[in-house]
Amino acid sequence: MVRRRLRRRRTLRLARRHVRGVPARGPAAGRRGGGGGRGRAPLHGLRLDNQQPGRFGGRRGRLTLRIVVVIPALNEAETLGALLARITRGAGAVAAADVFVSDSGSTDATTARAAVAGCVVIRGACVTGRGSALRAGVDAALAAAPDAGAVWMLHADCLPPEDGAACIRGALADPAVVGGAFGQRFNTSGCGRWARHRLRLVVFFNRVRYGLTGVYFGDQGIFVRPGILAAAGGVPPLDLFEDVELCRRLRAAGKLVLLPGRMTTSPRRFLANGPIRQLVRDAWMLLRHRLRGDGPAYAEAYARRRG
């Protein structure tokens, strides 16, 4: 009994070290770290990554936190390819089979690009609106990957930092953390000088907002533990501000963290309507949502402005 307890403690300690990217120490760790003894139950949310080089040029197992990615999309063929390339390549990348694109009726090549990349495409009558698309995608992802340790929700027109998945794994190594998000910046390439200044002002006000409230928007790459998400009732099936409602529920469940990297967001909506004007509109709609909760009225107005 004592040996079993000591062995289990050692396995958990090794798992935490591997999630943080710290190599195991000692000859015994090289033989058994991550591979595990026979008959041991797998740790929830962790899987073996057999692509990790061993000490002597061979291969050895390494425990990593499995992340499933859910991307709501509507006519995002132009931007989706760059996002998929970013999250499925490089060290610590997410497997393409763990990326779920929840399509809300695209008429362009969005679904074709996702399928060619090896991602799972979700379509159906329930995938209408961003909140419903996210909810359907999360349900499908967790049904296909019940051992996932994190759900990462990304907008199709945003790019996470190159080490985004590794940052999430590092953050969730702390059991007190239930989820979090990244900072935000705009892709200002091709913008004029005055447009860049106004977009920086938008970023500044957004930083003040989420710094004071701890509530993140969807274009910040929200991630969460699956069990916490289920306990919070899942993603709210709202057409607008589903991210705000989700963060409010998650804050009640535990600690949300802001990771050091920043999401690079497309400024197209702000450039189309004017950065300051769009900022004021968003602030006004968020205030109405918090005070009155009249979602359908301004969600329809928001959809008309986007269309």
TrEMBL record:
The entry's keywords: Cell membrane, Glycosyltransferase, Membrane, Transferase
Annotated GO CC locations: plasma membrane
Primary localization: membrane
Transmembrane segments: none
Biased composition range(s): Low complexity: 21-30
Residue ranges of coiled coil: none
InterPro entries per UniProt: Glyco_trans_2-like, Nucleotide-diphossugar_trans
Record keyword Transferase present: yes
Pfam families in UniProt: Glycos_transf_2
UniProt superkingdom: Bacteria
Subcellular location: Cell membrane
All copies of domain Glycosyltransferase 2-like, residue ranges: 69-202
Region (Disordered): 21-54
Annotated GO MF terms: glycosyltransferase activity
SUPFAM superfamilies recorded: Nucleotide-diphospho-sugar transferases
Name of the protein: Putative glycosyltransferase
